[in-house]
Amino acid sequence: MYGRYIRTLAEEAKEEAKRAKQVDKLRRKEERQRAKELRAYRGRCLSRLDSLFGWFWRLIITKLGEDGIFLAVLGILVAVISFAQDYVVVQLNLARIYLYDLAYDPTSKYFAWISVPVLLVLFSSGFVHLVAPQAIGSGIPEMKTILRGVILKEYLSFRTFVAKCIGLTATLGAGMPVGKEGPLVHIASIVATLMSKLVTSLDGIYENESRKTEMLAAACAVGVSCCFGAPIGGVLFSIEVTSVFFAIRNYWRGFFSAVFGALTFRLLAYWYENHETITAIFKTNFPQELPYDPQELVIYALIGVTSGLFGAAFVFCHRKYVLFMRKSKRLNRFLQKNRFIYPFVISLAITSIYFPLGTGQFVASRLTTRQQIRTLFSNFTWGTENLTASEEMIVNEWRSDYSSIYFNLATFIVTTFFLTIAASTLPVPSGSLIPIFKMGAGYGRLVGEVVALWFPEGIRVGSYVSQILPGGYSIVGAAAFPAGVTHSISICVVISEMTGQIKHIIPVMVAVLAANVVARLLQPSLYESIIMIKKLPYLPDILPSRTQAYLVYVEDFMVRDVKYIWKGITFKELRDLLKEGAKIRAFPIVDSPNNMILLGSIQRWELLKVLDLHIGRERRLQVAAQWQEEARSSHNRRLFKGIFLSQIHILFQEAHLEFKAD
Predict the structure, then answer these.
(1) In a domain? residue 156
(2) Gyration radius (Cα) of the chain, Å
(3) pTM of the model
(4) pLDDT digits over 194-248, tens only?
(5) Both 248 and 313 in a single domain?
(6) How many separate domains does the chain show?
(7) What is d(CA 244, CA 544) in angstroms, rounded to the nearest whole number?
(8) 520/631 same-domain check
(9) Closest CA relative to residue 434, chosen from 375, 377, 490, 373
(10) Residue 253's domain spans which residues?
(11) Containing H/E element for 464?
């Protein structure tokens, strides 16, 4: 480790490649010999079928190793997984509504409403803990760390894949205010890793670390695109939230795989959900002529500024809540011994708040997440009186006998804000972008309805009157609030693809940029905040909005009094060094204090282990026993020349022996 090279790296690589080639040649020869010996015990027909199957399998795997086929299969598999999860989640939500409708009195309705979600959350928590605790949480912060070159143990294993898929489906089916975008990115990365291992068994190209990183980058894009049905925005969003330096050669890989994933996801919805054609997930139909007035851009900018403030507040509250839960040692010990208590309490509290006959009537709790977003994007003003029957059904979900749509929308935003923070701390797979997206849509809808209330006739532009479209405000809010939380710009493209709405791209861009500027000045992004909470080995970025950061030099904050070890250091110096640097985990090793050439480093525990091996109690006892044996074998009892009496006294005390000095 601390030696010097005597040969060049090229010569070493050539010899290593030559040895590997010889070993591989011998291995293939032995395999052919064993196969030939085994054929003698099989029939001729069976042997030929076995050879044909082996050739066909090698051909498939070899073709799978090509980039195009590998990326296409990756996109299709992730899309199938995403659609299957959505299908199961819908069935679980329908089962809960069915049980709720079967009950007659309020008490039985309450227990019917909370029973399924609580059981699903407890099942998800227990299953993930037993199978793979690495599946807990989002997945995007960990993928940011992995793409930086850090290896997280068992994070991309098959066990984690099973735990993530099943746990996420159960959590979403429970109706918790969580999303699937982060876990789906994690799932796509695991699928890419497992496929790479499969191909590596016959084709060694995927053993290259650079190649693995390229496929993981494409997998992140597939995960986002299969969640939102947005291939272009999915690629751009995945680059923003997972990568700092993105290789251009990965660009086409991300788009290629994301298009296959999004197309398969929408085709499955077309085949199995009786859709008329392949459309956007949240299709909107705003009027073509003058969808907004230029004077409304000021309101859109204000939505962006306030969304940036709310996004920073969300990140701040989330971090404070998680740190509070971690700092309470008594609470942590209690929850570790009783792992099901916290999931039970949180899931029970959330489902109780969402109970339709209670506070749930103020937050449209009977609607699923997709239904809530579709109604928030609806193309009519809720506050008008002339509503059709279908429009009246939508509005009735957002008002009650005791409150108006404005109170319900405000309550919906505040409730989702705090419940999303609480749900994100559950020990289950969960994301946060979908609830944040929903909060932004509700906030935009609230602003749009208030503006429509102030200008019931619309805004006059010359001889033309521009009608207020609250649905357009909802789209702007749905883009601005996630932008403030994630610090991303590409959410504009994701919103356009999700809604099929390009007419509001300028208001969306204005709001998103305003939200980014405000949020970056106040807080880090949600994913970077989680990285700091988990203390993952990740180097944060220099905030580009603060020019003062570029005026700071390394010498302004570097550690100058470095504790180091050199060749020829005495035991006393080494002991003093360990005492002074009690909190230092590793020590650099240099050749001498004069040259200060770095040779390597050693961990503190390794250094202590080496010291104990050479001068520890067992070593001293061995030396004492050896000296005792030499003293007994000698005819005289005189001490060895050059050894102090005090040293012999200490050694014999360690060995529990008695001696007399003449």
Answers:
(1) yes
(2) 33
(3) 0.74
(4) 887 776 655 545 556 667 777 777 888 888 888 877 788 878 887 777 766 666 7
(5) no
(6) 3
(7) 13
(8) no
(9) 373
(10) 63-272
(11) strand 464-466
